[in-house]
Amino acid sequence: MSRTAKAVILARAVRRLSPRMAAYMARRVARNRLAVRFPDRYRARISAIEETLPRLGRPPADLPTGLVSMAEFYCAEYRDVMDGVLQGRVCLHGHEIDFGASDRVDWNRGVPEEGDHQMWRVKLAHMGFLCPMMLEGGPEHYAVVATLVAGARSGTDMTAPGAFNAYWFPYAASHRILSLGAGLMLARARGTLPPETDAAVADLLRYNVAFVLDNVEHELNNNHVERNLAALCLYFTYAESIPPAIAARLERDVAHLVGSTILEDGCQIERSPMYQGLSVASLAVLAETPFLSAALRARLSGRLDAARRAFAILCHPDGQVALFNDAWHDEVPHWTGPPAPEGRSLLPQGGYGRLSQGEDLCLMDAGPLGPSWNPGHGHADFLSLEITLGAERLIVDPGTSRYNTGADRARERSAAAHNGPCYEGIEPVEFTGCFKVGRMAEARLLDEGNLPLDTIGGTFRGTVGGAARMVRHYPGQGFLVADYWDSETPGAVSWLVPGSWQASTGPEDSILLHKNGSDARIVPLAGRFRAPAPQASSWACHYGRREAAHEIRLRGEAHTGGGQALLCWIGRTTPPDSACEDGAVLLDRLAALSESSR
């Protein structure tokens, strides 16, 4: 991409910022420069804030559920790696670095392959593994917690060049407050930590709270501010007191956050199933914050209930999240609450539809790229699907293997990498770098009034034409996918199937799939394969690595009413006898919807 094209994308992104976000972005740029130029003054600024803050008190005898859930959030992610940390081995995102000893951990350590977004280093800065070490470890773990805290205090400098994108990234500092704060409060309730470890963690928390108070990320909004505010509210909930000015500020900021980023159906506005899980944990803390007004806490409780329902809808039968937009597995705990209702579930504001029964599931993304002011976590996965049959993931999203700039990031955000009905060679969204977005686009979820029973659907209009999709569920058998394009530009769909499935060509122009005693098939009933056999490809369900996948490419055919159509059966059986007739009805509806949306 040329410098001119990048400049155009950047200009479009900047124009979408609210005046408030633009002002905070200017403040952030100034901070990054002035802290390096005047380090003593900046450190003195944070220390002065710290001196005004109360210290942490003791938790109540009846531990609030939000606090317990936050501690379990970090324990679930890190309990399997905490013993390695005793010897200085830190494994994050499946990538282990051996520092040789716990007192030699380098909190500024970069990973060369992560380029301009050092996710491993930021993840290290979360210090999330200290939570299970405090709650599930023994005396050796407690001693190492104190060692690691001392090393972080002495081995990092918020005024060093690049520090605000590393250990002193406000988002990372917020995770530190949440993980260490929840862990320390539960440990105090149990009376298990040695006094020196308790004091070291408490002092680090107080210093981090001072830093986050001065650096709430209003320039980014969204999940960043959510994490900032949840961290501050957790600390002051269990502090000996809270200054009235801070309480009033948090009341305003939390009210603005819930009103602008948690939609009525409970979806977090960035529309990532993974970040939805983070929102559930944050809202649980915010809803229990005693110094917030009763009216705001009631509002937070209502949104928390809705967010939990939305999270259940966005998880597969295995409890893992769908991978739409920026998302990967094991960043948030598996969903273990009440399951989503069987049948059809719609999230109208979030733009997601679900069909499910038992261990069969289809999820559709039919919403916007993300919030106009900061859509950086969005992918061009308009009308894309994920399908599970018999508790086995069959049709998958390409996922997110990295945030740093490069070919993988560009591909994983593109329409061509996803399975929505797209136009060959046409990208509806302008992406560059890690999170920059120029031209935007959005799909729209069809409401129940436009849908037959057991069906979900959506429409999309891009730069060269419109597309629409409906999916009908045949319980116990599979899913019929109908796609329609209203332009002459060739329409295409590419299904990704995990490489753990064995794939082969079958009779009557079908693809047969087998895994662990489960069988499935993909059969085009209208349209055709673009390649005679599945092609080698990849997908990412964990950050930092990709796994083998089969790519099955199809192309639409001329539709009797104009435009192009593709009708595809994805199921455990051969298509039902009525599939072609049912599909024709769906395609006619899609053509009519597309015509009315022009």
TrEMBL record:
Major localisation? periplasm
What keywords are annotated for this sequence in UniProt? Lyase, Periplasm, Signal
Q: Where is the Heparinase II/III-like C-terminal domain?
A: 341-559
A Pfam family reported for this protein in Swiss-Prot or TrEMBL: Hepar_II_III_C
Task: State if Signal is listed as a keyword.
Answer: yes
An example of a GO molecular function for this protein is: lyase activity
Q: Which PANTHER family match?
A: HEPARIN-SULFATE LYASE
Q: What is this protein called?
A: Heparinase II/III-like protein
